[in-house]
Amino acid sequence: MIKYNLVGNLWKGVVYFMDKELKFAVLIDADNISDKYVKIILDETAKNGIATYKRIYGDWTNTRLVSWKNVLLDNSITPIQQYGYTTGKNATDSAMIIDAMDILYSGTVGGFCIVSSDSDFTRLAMRLRESGMYVVGMGESKTPKPFISACNQFKYLDILLSKEQGEESASKKEEPAALKAASKNIRSKKAAKGNDSKKEKEELRPQTDLIMIKKAIISLVEEGSDDDEWIHSSELRNQLGKRFPDFDVRNFGHSKFSSFVNSLNILDCEQEKNIVRFKMKK
């Protein structure tokens, strides 16, 4: 029996080593995640590997979740029915946790994507990492810090959606004069809600702020630079990701790591072909 287990574990290791891309189980909590995020969820997962499991949990008899129907069909996501047995209790969490452990013990994936803004999944993320899984968390900026810290990576869905919508709006051609006049009344009504919009935008910010990131960058450069005081961009980025699971340059309006670091104005940058290095400014 012991011999079989050793062989089995070795074989699983060979299979994972041969796979070029990490296989993920994507588990979505429909109780507190909107269907408008589905494209971002799948796109972000695709950057890390392949989504072999795509499941979403909720009480599908509830009309509140009806907007998910077409989204699930279009993206081949399997809905898992979970009735709310007791008022005020979230049965969806338990169903997701049980399924996650079943998938873990099946040995068919190397990572999990837990999509929720609920801190109840903190212990699940910790347990999966203890078993060697790579855990990506996704949720809104209101997600409690303990769940964020329990993941290898964490993505703010509302910030990414806001950025994506802003880019789409900027890329559109200028509206014809007639359309502008027709939409003037609509825009004036929206302006009346300016205070609410401003408050909403203020809330769309990462929990790890620039001051914390600057301090970490200075510390990492001082500790990890070579004899010439240079540190490679990839190494600096990896170390920041380990310290701050929710670190993403897109949260701060940048598409590249090098442009984000240069905007802080604390490091000198040197680029030779595809190699980028940084050192402290004198």
UniProtKB/TrEMBL annotation:
Single annotated GO MF: RNA nuclease activity
Residue ranges occupied by any HTH OST-type domain in the UniProt entry: 209-282
Signal peptide interval: none
Residue ranges of the region described as Disordered: 168-205
Domain of life assignment: Bacteria
Record's compositionally biased regions (Basic and acidic residues): 168-177, 193-205
InterPro entries referenced in this protein's UniProt entry, alphabetically: LOTUS-like (IPR041966), NYN (IPR021139), OST-HTH/LOTUS_dom (IPR025605)
PROSITE patterns assigned to the protein according to its UniProt record, in alphabetical order: HTH_OST
Chain segments annotated as transmembrane: none
Protein name: OST-HTH/LOTUS domain-containing protein
Organism: Kineothrix alysoides
